[in-house]
Amino acid sequence: MRCPYCGNEGNRVVDTRLAREGEEIRRRRECEECGRRFTTRERLENVAPRIIKKDERREDYAREKLLVGIESACVKRPVSADAIERILDRVEKRIQESGEKEISSRILGARVLEELRALDPLAAVRFASVFLDFQSVEAYAEFFSTLESNKPDES
Fold this sequence. Notes:
The chain is α+β, with helices and mostly antiparallel strands. The protein has 2 domains: 11-43; 50-149. It contains 5 helices and 6 strands; from the N terminus they run βββββααβααα. The strands form 2 sheets. The chain has a 3-stranded antiparallel sheet with strand order 1-2-3, with no helix packed on it. The mean pLDDT is 88.
């Protein structure tokens, strides 16, 4: 592992911990050359299904693309980076457990939307406006009504 600061390959592991419910190993390392510390993460590389886009194109699943979409929906909302990572982890786990070799982008988006609804309804609206391609005020109103109908009783 190269030091991100000086590029030296010599370093030592200072601390090792399990992270993300045992799905990942977090290691604190110290560079033997410059003495600075940095963190590395190890996770089992799972083969995710390919994504079938609206226009029938197929592409490899890209966690980074989904992360950008969720982060965009959560801008200026009280949603932590850890909460977003947990959403990604749960969605990935569900699509991998399905055993499918290909999955529709609509199914993937619906899973993310389900997670966002539970976490932050406004972020869910933002995500849905792009994912569901709202073209009118009525489309927003219909989505808001589904949010209200799925809201748990506060009595």
